[in-house]
Amino acid sequence: MSLNLIKEAVIESNEIVIVSHEFPDGDSVGSSIALAKALSQMGKSIKIIINGDIPLEYRFLAGIDDIRKPDEVVINSESTMVFLDCADEKRAGTQMDFYRKNCRLSINIDHHPGNSNFADINHVDVSASSTGEIVYDLIKLLDITIDKDIANALYITIVTDTGSFRFDNTTAKTFIMAGYLITRDLDFSAIRINLWENKSPNSIGLLVDVLSTMKFVCNNKAAYIVATREVMEKWQVGYGELESFVNYPKSIKGIEVAILFKEIGINEIKVSFRAKADVDVQAIASYFGGGGHKKASGCTLSTQLNEGIKNIIEYLQERLI
Fold this sequence. Notes:
The strands form 2 sheets. Strands 3-2-1-4-5-6 form a 6-stranded parallel beta sheet. A 6-stranded mixed beta sheet has the order 7-8-9-10-12-11. It folds into 2 domains: about 1-195, inorganic pyrophosphatase (n-terminal core); about 200-320, Diaminopimelate Epimerase, Chain A, domain 1 (Roll). The protein has helices at about 1-10, 25-40, 95-100, 130-140, 150-160, 170-180, 190-195, 200-210, 230-235, 245-250, 280-285, 305-320, and strands at about 15-20, 45-50, 65-70, 80-85, 105-110, 120-125, 215, 220-225, 255-265, 270-275, 290, 295-300. A hairpin with a 3-residue loop joins strand 11 (about 290) and strand 12. The chain is an alpha/beta fold. Helix 2 (about 25-40) packs parallel to helix 4 (about 130-140), helix 2 packs antiparallel against helix 5 (about 150-160) and helix 5 runs antiparallel to helix 6. The termini are far apart. It contains 12 helices and 12 strands. Helices cover about 40% and strands about 20% of the residues.
């Protein structure tokens, strides 16, 4: 029912502001672009806001240049704001929460368990492989033509959030969606090259340095890697380049939990958790004020790097040993 409410709200809106989370990934970027292009077909005035640098691998998508930072966009009291892939309003940044409280209507479309239902209209489908899968449903409900550009953007959402259809969130519906997108003149070559065959030399240098920090803990049931501010400055790449790094320790035999610590500031640490089998990393992330999925979650720590690592590992040891 909530998706039908969103359909009616979109039809009645003249200006729609699409917002997704900081530190963008394939789902946030792809779903934002796909929805923007779809609603543009309806003649709507569209603005897209993502607070963060867009990772290199997604910059080939048509419409990427339409994405703006929060301070580059004016949101007024007549705007309808659509939040994508945000488990709570903080994920998009504090400035966006201020705008949410002053816009005409706010809409929340997400697939994360534990979503706080912060908007006026909320559609949270935890069975969906990605937010892009829900955006696909909305576009179909609005009877909008999915062209090549929309198909490329939507395919990015599912292929990244399912780990190329490897993760447990992949369902029969995910494959049906992928099959349909292929019929819409999907550009497989561009997607393959940009996602997996277009890394910059600096990105590879960063990977080498980050992997060199790997440590095994909890009787070798967990492994973590660290990206310090120093190494990020050394290689001059955005934090989006780190998105897939946590999968390297996860790929090691015997590892049940993989962790990536990203030092954003002196007292700001972003932590990414990945689980291979039965460990619920969402519960771990939630304990530290974060969230996500059972096998892929994250949190932010307001502490120094070494202290943050110590706190996480000590808590994890109680659950793995």
